Amino acid sequence: MPTFTTADGTRLAHHLRGEGEPLAVLPGGPLRASAYLGDLGGLTAHRRLALLDLRGTGDSAVPADPATYACDRMTEDVEDWREHPGLDRFDLLAHSAGAALAMLYAARHPHRIRRLLLITPNPSALGLRGTPEDRLAAAALRAHEPWFPEAYPAFRAWLAGEADCDDVFLPFFHGRWDDTARAHADAEPAQTNEEAADRYLAEGAFTPDETRAALAALPAPVLVYAGALDGGPCPRLARRVAACFPHAEVVVQPGAAHDPWLDDPEEFRRRIAGFLDR
Fold first, then answer.
1. Using CA atoms, how far apart are residues 46 and 275, in angstroms rounded to an integer?
2. In the chain, which stretches have pLDDT less than 50?
3. pTM of the predicted protein model
């Protein structure tokens, strides 16, 4: 397990899986250890994945200053990570909340990005947000599922702020609610730094106008990847994200939700490898 030390003295770890040209990977959560990403649907057959444990997660150390959990403060962690093996440019894939960090990094260091892949991205860095209506519309697509009658009212109440998060509606975050999805969901609490997660997306972490202006000139090709059944971001919001880049395309995976590599590994692997190998 390779490690490196950031400018503020925090030791961070990353995990190498597979063979071939490197693909740097930022996890979501926010602040969930990278273990949940596995081999990204078998993408290790095409690339050597370098999966970063963000500060305070997984095998990385807890920082001395909790304020450094803010997303904007972590961009220099990514830059230190790039410099550690001496890469001039690199391909960067980021999932969910990790995509907010990837966008901030690309805005600050545009010429370090060779290709940028945003998987079901949280677009907070752009000043964009999914809405409860988006999530309920996506949830309604699952009305045929046997678990829907119990899950939908609880989900609606949570989105309205009338109830706490409930495991009963976890199936909405997965395209297939099978044993693989259940194990993935069950592992989340132990893998996530819940205490620090709120700091990651805290007020002041983003300056959307500046970020949009910088990304409008990003020279790298960008892939914005959405699940057809995902409500955050829904495919419509993913297209708005793509419109912020000059060289972006959108892929919507049928039957997939927020973790598309779990829902159809072969389709996910084919789409991602195709973009990377162009």
1. 12
2. none
3. 0.97
